[in-house]
Design a protein that fits this description.
The structure is a single chain. By secondary structure, the protein is α/β, with parallel strands linked by helices. It has one domain (14-224): Rossmann fold, CATH 3.40.50. It is built from eight helices and five strands, in the order E-H-E-H-H-E-H-H-E-H-H-E-H. The protein has helices spanning 26-39, 53-64, 70-94, 105-114, 119-125, 142-152, 171-190, 204-218; strands at residues 14-20, 44-48, 98-102, 134-139, 196-199. Helix 4 crosses helix 7. The radius of gyration is 18 Å and the shape is globular. It starts with 13 loop residues before the first strand and ends in a 10-residue tail after the last helix.
């Protein structure tokens, strides 16, 4: 069965998602896109991964106590996503908004599979979700993304570094291996889900210009201007 986007399903709104490794610059770029759209008077909403108020406290407690198994991790993130999907994303898309997502279901497909969950099982728990109308994948060499993260943070977090997978006793090396495994998953998905690849090594301004051009090519932005 062919996967359908929100546009193909008849929603008046459009959903744009960004994906990429930590340190790829995707969050910076999608926030710049949000600001650009706001300045044009467009109806726009921003949502990010693992941000549901309903679930966030439970996720934090589990992480802090290092209690999360791969299955528990997967189910908590799926619950978070389902809550935002039902309460935020779908209603706004029905209302004709441009919805910007910093990570979508592909993050779960990559991370949960690397953590040992069955790919079919992971996809099954997200099968209620329609496909984004555009997915940008920010691709950069692993050393580039690692360098950005390590320069910007005093310490890496346990789960962030994949320490629960026993890849290495060294947290930096564990992070390197964990990120590399995720990158392989993302690249394997890129054709299947029609990712638009963005060179994340380039200057911020150049990447932003490319994003704006691609969005304008695929979406009629005039249809999403606020009335009055």
């Amino acid at each position: 069965m062919e996967l359908q986007t929100f546009g193909q399903l008849g929603y008046p709104g459009r959903l744009i998602a960004v994906e990429g490794l930590d340190g790829s610059g995707k969050s910076t770029q999608i926030k710049l896109i949000k600001r650009w759209m706001e300045l044009q008077g467009l109806k726009v909403f921003f949502s990010e991964w693992n941000s549901s108020v309903l679930v966030k406290s439970a996720t934090s407690k589990g992480k802090n106590r290092e209690l999360l198994t791969p299955t528990t991790f997967s189910l908590i993130h799926a619950t978070d996503f389902a809550d935002r999907y039902e309460r935020q994303l779908v209603p706004l898309l029905r209302a004709g908004y441009l919805v910007l997502c910093d990570r979508y279901i592909f993050t779960a497909f990559a991370r949960d599979t690397v953590r040992g969950c069955s790919p079919q099982w992971v996809r099954g728990i997200y099968d209620f979700a329609a496909q984004p109308d555009l997915v940008f994948f920010f691709r950069a060499p692993l050393e580039t993304t690692l360098g950005r993260i390590l320069r910007g943070r005093p310490t890496l977090k346990y789960f962030e570094a994949g320490m629960d997978l026993n890849l290495s006793n060294d947290i930096v090396e564990s992070f390197r291996l964990f990120q590399g495994m995720q990158l392989e998953q993302y690249l394997a998905m890129s054709t299947e889900f029609n990712f638009l690849l963005i060179d994340a090594k380039g200057k911020v301004e150049e990447q932003q210009s490319m994003l704006r051009q691609l969005i304008c090519q695929h979406i009629d932005l005039d249809a999403y201007r606020k009335e009055g």
